[in-house]
Design a protein that fits this description.
The complex is a heterodimer of chains A (189) and B (190).
Chain A lengths: L10 E4 L3 H11 L3 H7 L9 H13 L4 E7 L5 E11 L4 E8 L9 H15 L5 E7 L3 H10 L2 E12 L2 E11 H11 L3
Parallel strand pairs in A: 4-5
Antiparallel strand pairs in A: 1-2, 2-3, 3-4, 5-7, 6-7
Helix pairs in contact in A: 1-3, 4-5
Chain B lengths: L12 E4 L6 H9 L2 H7 L9 H18 L3 E7 L5 E11 L4 E8 L9 H16 L4 E7 L3 H9 L3 E12 L2 E11 H7 L2
Parallel strand pairs in B: 4-5
Antiparallel strand pairs in B: 1-2, 2-3, 3-4, 5-7, 6-7
The chains are: A alpha+beta (189), B alpha+beta (190).
Amino acid sequence: MNENLLRGSLVRLTREEPEVLARLESQWSSDSEYSRLLDWDPARRFSIKTTQKWIEKQYENDDSYSFAIRILADDRVIGGIGLDGIRWTHGDTFVGIGIGDRDLWGKGYGTDAMKIILRYAFTELNLRRVTLDVFEYNQRGVKSYEKAGFVYEGRERGQILREGRRWDVLYMGILREDWIKLEQQKGTL
Amino acid sequence: MSIAASLFDGTLVRLGPIDHEKDPETVSRWTHDAGFMRMMYTDPMRPQAPWQVKKKLEELEKSIEENRNQFHFRIRSRTDDRLLGFAELYWISWVNGTGLVRLGIGDPADWRKGYGRETLSLLLRYAFRELNLYRLTALIPEYNLPARALFASFGFLEEIRRRQALERDCRTWDLLQFGLLADEWKETQK
């Protein structure tokens, strides 16, 4: 039995008080690039109160598996990751992730968090596959997801209109059977 | 095409509003048909009483009013006004000019009569000429061969294959995503 299910090599996944998280989220989304990497809806500024209510609602939903990401070394909360739109009868879910502080981008924290949540999805929730979408202009994201084992499955042409041009949305997926093979090769399962 | 050309009337079908009095009975019958429900939805097939359908249709109309990103039509026969199915543009992102499309003809006796084809042609014209969308997406299970053929015949391109995203009848199926750009649709109108 794995007793450290939500702990990786760089980060761990936790749940934080909505008020604390709302303040952080508000701070992170003052960087519009953070918002534009996360969502194709317009980047905007929500009040802490609205954000807090939204987080509370999410936490009260039994079908929501969202977590905060904490760095093991200094215990800082640096972002969030969550499974969304789980379709239990088919064993499929979407995953989304965001690292708030741009100084911490490209340091492996997101990849580590993704590896943790894949283990959680496959070995605790017993899902069969995990899906994600990533925007064409987020190549750092694509590389991170590939490292975690995701495979390219296609592209939605021109789904996003930003800065006067069209961008594709890329879809990636990972199957439990392929994840198990990867873990066995590494000797971690 | 002129402003006077009808957006809602075809030769076989007409796109109309929800009829909260008459529709629930027919829709309830459709929900008892696993063949239809599994073609249309990935949620578990589950029959609904007319009373439940009525409530769902009221909720749908409320959400359309609140979110303003969905257009829902009932497909009716031009000869006798009978309810044949539904057609929908949903999850519209106005900022990006994109949305999803789906349609269903409820009674298998009404399949292969050209109702779906004419509905889709009206719906596409509505999406590109009235809503001014840039692209449309259709999510279709691998096993829904009639829908795949219909959308492909309108120029929809298979863009994404979510491998084994569905499990039914003790095996897995891919979930396919098709896309059509306004420019591509315009080419087919020449």
